[in-house]
Amino acid sequence: MQENAPRSLPVIVITGTPGTGKTTHAQLLAAQSPVPLQHINVSELIKEKMLHDGFDEEWQSYIADEDKVIDELEPLVSAGGGLILDWHMCDAFPERWIDLVVVLQCNHTRLWDRLEARGYPLKKIQENNEAEIMNVVLEEAREAYAEDIIVTLNSEDATELESNVSRIVQWIEEWLKNQEPDSGS
């Protein structure tokens, strides 16, 4: 039984190892969605709103304060949904918030090239590559959410990007139909 009030729009998490295409997918989905969805790049939100415990020089990333992140997002979720949450740490979000978790995956060789092109330090590239090979993000999603709301999609090229976004749009359309009150026909 769901504890929160029904939402009029879904909350979708797009997650995956850094470099798998989360932000690109989220931006395209926000543009193509049949209903207005707000894309929130959680990593950017953490920087902008200072929702962190400082910067880790070794890993070249902010140390997220998950409690502050949740507190910042709670009013948006409570206001009816309509969010695309783009972050590599999908298990930070309360299960009751989430309607769909999209885990993007990419061939580790291609991922290495993408991260290298971003100028990531070698240690960070290696760590993220190992995480992708070991399905770390997928396992975190499976531990945090019901299996029936998790979808795994390959994110290798523009063709897969278009196909993935089309599948998510179809899911949104189906979700919306399931939210309509029964007309008693």
TrEMBL record:
Region named LID: 117-127
One Gene Ontology cellular component annotation held by this UniProt entry: nucleus
Catalytic activity: AMP + ATP = 2 ADP; ATP + H2O = ADP + phosphate + H(+)
Chain residue ranges for the region called NMPbind: 41-64
Compartments, record wording: Cytoplasm; Nucleus
EC number: 2.7.4.3
Enzyme class of the recorded protein, top EC level: transferase
Gene3D superfamilies, alphabetized: P-loop containing nucleotide triphosphate hydrolases
GO biological process: ribosomal small subunit biogenesis; rRNA processing
Residues annotated as binding ATP: G19, G21, K22, T23, T24, R118
Pfam families xrefs: AAA_18
Quaternary state and interactors: Interacts with small ribosomal subunit protein uS11. Not a structural component of 43S pre-ribosomes, but transiently interacts with them by binding to uS11.
Assigned protein family: Belongs to the adenylate kinase family. AK6 subfamily.
The protein's role, per its UniProt record: Broad-specificity nucleoside monophosphate (NMP) kinase that catalyzes the reversible transfer of the terminal phosphate group between nucleoside triphosphates and monophosphates. Has also ATPase activity. Involved in the late cytoplasmic maturation steps of the 40S ribosomal particles, specifically 18S rRNA maturation. While NMP activity is not required for ribosome maturation, ATPase activity is. Associates transiently with small ribosomal subunit protein uS11. ATP hydrolysis breaks the interaction with uS11.
Protein name: Adenylate kinase isoenzyme 6 homolog
Source organism (scientific name): Russula ochroleuca
